[in-house]
Specification:
Number of helices: 16
CATH architecture of the largest domain: 3-Layer(aba) Sandwich
CATH topology of the largest domain: Rossmann fold
Structural class: alpha/beta
CATH class of the largest domain: Alpha Beta
Helix content: 55-70%
Shape: elongated
Bound molecules: zinc ion
Distance between the termini: 52 Å
């Protein structure tokens, strides 16, 4: 894994370049950002570059023994810890502390990644604190988390923070077309719906998401013709389906409420683009462009803006773990009312 293969994250890459060229390395890092934007890949690239016999520019050479082991996934001094079920448990941290107390097998720098560090139980986090403050020599600790706020302040303050950003749609689209041979229409749809996460975009391109997206758009199109009772029923049904995986379907592997709302958000953005700019080149729902054109003509711009706000608010509310049935009822009734003007 090379830094040059990671899309975007220029600021983080500049930081790593400085770190690699300096003698004195910080020993604990906190990589923050949504899943699927290159945090673990960067940890692997950093491990490779730090232990390479002949690093070139920022990256490892790819052919020395340690680079080859890293590329083959059998480098003994790269430790990867992820939640066991819901949490990173105290036993996992105790085991890690034990492993770290022995010298690295062969490398100059042993790297240990804690994936979803926010999933550490309080006991696990407390047991980890001392290690984090003063890891045995030769060890680098990398914590991956979405938000620093989800971690104990005592953990955050002991780490050098490296923020990772959601990826730009265009860069993702280009990469999906070029590297994964995905057709441009699909690439645009999944890049936009993924919210800047390449991992999620890739998954969406492979699974039932594309089929679901058509269902979700059809549901939205039906909304103005439903009675209020039917709209409420729709809210209950969409929430019930979601109960299996939680609102963030990416965790369970199934598309969830958040993805449905993201698709709806883009639907209104598309309508606004067509309404305001007569623009069809930038829309996400390219396969619905005829329908969008007709709807854009008959909709009021302020209703489209209000609809988009309503969807964005629902996304935020779901992220804050508000009651998902209430959130869905509210957003569906709002969208229905606003759509009433153009039905
Ligand atoms: Zn090398």
């Amino acid at each position: 894994m090379l830094f040059s293969e990671i899309i975007g994250q220029e600021k983080a890459k500049r930081f790593f370049k400085r770190v690699i060229s300096e003698e004195r390395l910080p020993h604990a890092y906190l990589f923050t950002g949504i899943p699927g934007i290159g945090k673990t890949r960067a940890a692997r690239a950093l491990t490779m570059a730090l232990n390479c016999r002949a690093p070139a520019d920022l990256d490892g050479c790819g052919s020395c023994p340690s680079c080859r082991q890293m590329l083959g996934g059998n480098f003994p001094d790269f430790i990867y810890i992820k939640p066991d079920g819901q949490n990173i448990k105290i036993e996992q941290i105790r085991d890690l502390n034990r492993r770290l107390s022995f010298a690295p097998v062969s490398a100059k720098h042993r790297v240990c990644v804690l994936q979803q560090a926010e999933a550490m139980t309080v006991e696990a986090a407390n047991s980890f604190l001392k290690t984090l403050e003063e890891p045995p020599p030769g060890n680098i600790l990398i914590l991956n988390a979405v938000e620093p706020l989800d971690l104990l302040p005592t953990i955050v303050s002991r780490c050098q923070r490296v923020p990772f950003q959601p990826l730009p749609v265009q860069a993702m689209t280009d990469w999906l077309i070029k590297e994964k041979d995905i057709d441009s229409q699909t690439a645009i749809i999944v890049a936009k719906a993924s919210g800047g996460s390449l991992g999620r975009a890739l998954k969406m391109s492979e699974d039932v998401f594309l089929e679901k997206r058509r269902e979700w758009v059809s549901g939205l199109l039906k909304l103005p013709r439903l009675s209020k009772g039917e709209a409420l029923q729709m809210a209950v049904e969409s929430t019930a389906k979601d109960k299996r995986g939680g609102p963030d379907g990416s965790k369970s592997g199934e598309p969830g409420l958040l993805e449905m709302l993201a698709v709806w958000g883009y639907w209104y953005r598309d309508l606004l683009l067509m309404k305001a700019a007569g623009q069809t080149r930038l829309i996400m729902n390219v396969d619905f462009s005829d329908k969008l054109q007709i709807l854009a003509k008959s909709s009021k711009i302020e209703n489209l803006i209000d609809s988009l706000f309503a969807v964005d608010k629902a996304i935020k509310d779901l992220r804050r773990m508000r009651n998902s049935t209430l959130v869905m009822e509210h957003v569906l009734l709002t969208l229905q009312r606003l759509a009433g003007y153009y039905s």
